[in-house]
Amino acid sequence: MTSIALLLQSASQRLTAISPTPRLDAELLLAYAIKRSRTYLLAWPEAVPSPAQADRFQHLVERRCQGEPIAYLIGRREFWSHEFEVQPWVLVPRPETEVLVEKALALIPPESSWQIADLGTGSGAIAVCLGLERPKARLIATDLCPKALAVAKANARRIGARNLIFVRGDWLASFAEASLDLIVSNPPYVAATDPHLKGEIRFEPALALIGGRDGMDCFRRLIPQAYRCLKPGGFLLLEHAPEQELALLELLARTGFEGIVCHPDLEGRPRVTQAQRSL
Hints:
- This protein has eleven helices and nine strands.
- The chain is an alpha/beta fold.
- The longest helix is centred in the N-terminal third of the chain and has 15 residues, at 51-65.
């Protein structure tokens, strides 16, 4: 029989090799395994979990040691101060995507009834946050994967975003010309040869990650469609890899977009590009 303190100490040591935050990982996994909060772990370090709980925890630690993301192990991830359900068929929401939400909110007038599309919604994190912050806007969240849409719908319902509809579709194929005020997307943009695919993200769905040989395939399809579907003066916001900034600028300008600007992520890397359809 082993106490919470000893379980956390042992797991933290094991997780040092795989995670930059081994203690936090250990606490999240143990809290999940014993169905308690992290506050409980800190308040009752001498408590002894049941053998079944300890076994469940060790199994989770072993999976984490193999590189499996914490979010998939515990089934949730915080984003924009909300807790989202996460399953292996959706991407894990990341802090850099909050830049996309921030820049979108800066564009959307607070009391507007804008028509907004979130393409490749995954867990629904972007659409749900925009819907909550701009309750008079109408959000259409699309995804090709029906299981991803089910996760997004569940998140919207649980978190309380009521102004969303969900559509299974391939980018903007089902949208009318000049029908949208804003399009946002975090599309697959990882290059097929990217060495990071051998790391932790190998557990995430390839369909939502890989954008062809150079990571640009989805942008080549999406950007012309976006120009067609945006109203004159409408905006497009795209998350992308830092090294794709110049290629995106060229593609957007060639398509006819104006006012192109790239916003940095929290580490100062080019991450979200904004463009506007000409009036």
